[in-house]
Specification:
This protein has 341 residues and is an all-alpha fold. The chain contains 13 helices and no strands.
Length: 341
């Protein structure tokens, strides 16, 4: 049996959290780190916009039934299950952990791992590219609106200013990247590796700022190991429910095997790369660390479970190929990138 993938970026995130616990930004350093994190978020979404090919996205609209199914699961079923988890408060989840869990259910799907797992499992990779891209694009607008409608904070709700902050810090840089794409796309393609490091570094900076502020404010005293273990179990159950729902729904709707695989992988995951910056804008202050903790844990769970599924379906496809005597298909056999956009 192959070793389950331990996401290297999760290890980096945990190291960042450890540094934030031991050496949080205090005094005059705190506003400097906070300002740098705000700038990093804007840069991150500018690069997202510059990478997205608008023409390919428009062409992918032809498979509207498949994309509509993925979006319905991502922004419909997931939030409904998140709301149902309210029944677990306070016996299994604290109110703060529930808020973070509900927030992760409002996020868009990943891009890179959805495509990679679909390719490994011999699914419809082209459809996965489009569906995951649409999900990320919709998430920039839909996630803040859902958060404003469904989430509450100590102040009684997410303010209009927080939603406006999403527009200023995320949507405007994203649109700027789209507008400048025709001139900077070749440069971005040549420096893909370096820009990937910028992506990861930006998220690490946001995590350090958020968790460090929580340490200074004493937020982490609210979290115990039994509560953390219970959160992991709840998230595993949440992922299992969505995986089962996408399998059943895609079969009932008559999709082909390749399309079903794309629906399962695109519809069952949530984006860490989008979620951390959005949380830092929507939930400013020390509590943002608790808001992103459920997402960080869910990110690793989804990679491990989906890796097992992808390898199993790949083995089934290989067995079918050998029986039929068809030629070996060319498909990627790699672990998804650490950060999913």
């Amino acid at each position: 049996m192959r070793r389950l993938p331990v996401d290297p970026f999760i290890a980096m995130l945990l190291c960042t959290v450890a540094v934030a616990v031991l050496l949080p930004a205090r005094g005059t350093a705190a506003p400097v780190v906070s300002g740098a994190a705000v700038g990093a978020v804007g840069l991150l979404f500018f690069l997202y916009g510059a990478r997205l090919s608008t023409r390919e996205a428009v062409q992918g609209m032809r498979q509207w039934r498949l994309h509509g199914t993925v979006l319905a699961v991502t922004f419909g079923l997931f939030p409904l299950l998140g709301l149902a988890c309210r029944l677990l408060v306070p016996d299994l989840l604290t109110p703060q952990l529930y808020q973070g869990l509900l927030f992760l259910t409002l996020l868009p799907s990943t891009v890179q791992s959805s495509i990679a797992f679909t390719s490994i499992a011999r699914g419809n990779t082209a459809a996965a590219v489009c569906s995951a891209t649409f999900s990320s694009l919709f998430g920039i607008v839909v996630t803040p609106l859902l958060a404003a409608a469904l989430l509450s904070t100590q102040g009684g709700g997410i303010s209009a200013g927080a939603v406006l902050g999403i527009v200023e810090q995320l949507l405007l840089p994203f649109l700027a990247g789209q507008l400048l794409r025709r001139w900077i796309a070749p440069w971005i393609a040549r420096h893909r590796t370096v820009l990937g490091l910028v992506d990861r570094g930006s998220i690490l900076l946001v995590v350090y700022s958020a968790f460090g502020a929580g340490v200074v404010a004493g937020v982490w005293g609210q979290l115990s190991l039994p509560r953390l273990a219970m959160l992991l179990l709840v998230e595993a159950g949440l992922l299992a429910a969505v995986l089962a729902a996408t399998l059943v729904l895609s079969r009932r709707l008559g999709f082909s095997r390749a399309d079903r695989i794309a629906i399962v992988f695109c519809g069952s995951k949530k984006s860490l790369a989008s979620g951390v910056p959005m949380a830092s804008v929507l939930f400013p202050g020390p509590a943002v660390g608790l808001m992103v903790l459920p997402l960080m844990l869910f990110h690793q769970i989804q990679l491990m479970v989906c890796a097992v599924l992808a390898r199993r379906w790949a083995a089934e496809a290989e067995s079918t190929r050998l029986v039929a005597g068809s030629p070996q298909p060319a498909a990627a056999r790699r672990t998804p990138d650490a950060v999913d956009h």
